[in-house]
Predict the structure of Cytochrome bc1 complex Rieske iron-sulfur subunit.
Amino acid sequence: MSSGSEPGPRPTDEELAGMSRDELLRLGGKLDGVEIVNYPEPWPVKGTRAEKRAERIIGLWFLLAAVAGLAFLVALIWWPWQYEPPENTDGYFWYSLYTPVLGITLGVSVLALGIGVLLYGKRFIPNELAVQQRTDNQGRGSAEIDRKTILAHLADSGERSTIARRSLIKRSAGLGAGVLGLGAVALPLAGFVKNPWAHPDSKESLAHTGWKAQFPGEIVYLRRNTGNPEEVSLVRPEDLDAGAMETVFPFRESERGDHEALAHALKRADNPVMLIRLRPDDAERVVKRKGQEDFNYGDYYAYTKICSHVGCPTSLYEQQTNRILCPCHQSQFDALTYAKPVFGPATRALAQLPITVHTDGYLIARHDFIEPIGPGFWERKS
């Protein structure tokens, strides 16, 4: 950045407008007190085999970035991503590769693009060595003469780097960066490829969860995760001590013995629920949400584990303060006041699951949440 504070005669605006770039370069260096110690040409002899080979290698890296970026886009959209049980050997194999393929293709694209940029800087950018005395121009902004000379320096650097005549490098770099940029845009939009409102009354829509009964009168139990998807461990009220918390998932008798259904219930993102048993003294101080006064069963309250901020798991419960904590962005919810947010970026209370005890003594869900869980979306009314 030019200082513009050096003494000496300066050209008029008319003289400045008539100067060539070389003249502006010399003028800028003089005004800035720049002494160029060394400014060698990267390729003194033009068109050598070594120069062309270096250009092809750099273009190859950029092309590799484009191919890997395109592979990332294809895998993101068309690779089999839906869960397959291990018993389905072929389907499970391809499903298990979904995340690794995304990581490898995106990583190779970024790495290849970076290597291409580094090689270009090393092989074609002039290795200038200069010394400059600098000031802050006494707090004043850059004058017109300073802007003119710095633009001349930038243009000269571009010409000396020979980028203008490196069509292979320019096209391959543009292709690699373009495809990678397209992947960066496609990644957050990939969730919209499938229409979540195609079946608004089913448990697959954003308005419902896996706790929704599939037919009238179906019993949906609260089930704990023991680490073995085949094991069905239902929850009784006496299983929890006062002040305890446990994560539970939905279970239907129709799923018993069905490995895929049992495993899917534990993996589905909107299924986890925090079952909390308040201490008797704390239960007397509970403030219930309007319209949800009967959602609890005695001292037992069930709230979704999906944070209302951006959907992280609210997996922490502090017994002494009755606070539910989200470790991602530090949102805190008061379990004694219908899980209302009391700290952090979250603005809505956690959705409460209505629970009761079945005639067989196990805790069950009375019905699904009455509002969408997790973060907001355009069609959400709550």
Remarks:
- The longest strand covers residues 245-251.
- Residues 1-7 have pLDDT under 50 and may be disordered.
